[in-house]
Amino acid sequence: MATTQTTPLRRCETRYFGPVDYDEQSVMLFPDGIPAFEQEQRFLALRQPINEPLVFLQSLANPNLCFATLPALSACPGYQLSMAPEDLDALRLETGRQPVIGRDVLCLAILSLEENAPPTVNLLAPIVVNLRTLCGRQAIQTDSLYSHREALPLREAACS
Amino acid sequence: MLVMRRRAGESILIGEDIEIQIIHIGESRIKIGITAPKSVPVSTKEVKLVGQENLAAAQLRSVAALRNLLDRLIEGPTGGEK
Lengths: 160, 82
Hints:
The structure holds two protein chains of two kinds.
Chain A: E1 10-14, E2 18-22, E3 28-29, E4 42-46, E5 55-59, E6 66-71, H1 72-75, H2 85-90, E7 105-112, E8 120-121, E9 127-130, E10 136-138, E11 150-151
Antiparallel strand pairs in A: 1-2, 3-4, 4-5, 5-6, 6-7, 7-8, 7-9, 8-11, 9-10
Chain B: E1 11-14, E2 18-25, E3 30-35, H1 45-57, H2 63-71
Antiparallel strand pairs in B: 1-2, 2-3
């Protein structure tokens, strides 16, 4: 429940940024975790001006677990959600329509950067967080418009 | 691959204790009921795929590599048309 009362900041260790202070009210809860990390239920979304538009999903239980993500609309302008009714229901979102990114939900695509391969984002299964409740899940989309390894719109790499 | 034809309400048995029932056939999706022992993990193929992708994504070593990548990100809607 939202409250105007200020709570003392807590501190957590992060994979890339050392100790970070956070407000308990900014914690995003993933009741089912995400595939392959079902035990990880509490995450922070870390943003830094220098790393815009990246958003880092830091696990609170496991300092070593942090996903680099891009807002889905940054990774793919015009990105459209097609969430399954079960996922909408689990996030307490209206089931009759798709949520609006930025207004109803935060929608992040996990980045994958493997050596000797072009970077990709997972647009098949974005991280969707209800902005009202901060409850989230990785929602596998119901149509196959997007892949789990979607290429990023990059300029040609400067070869040296 | 073994291919079988089934109608709504009919079932397929796998081994002694796994039953797959076709519950409803819709226009573009079908609803399936699965009865299996607790020891048998049941999930969609996409969940496994996404799990593997998450494991790979969690291996990222440094933010420096990412920053390099960011500099090459084409901004605005012009570059991302599909």
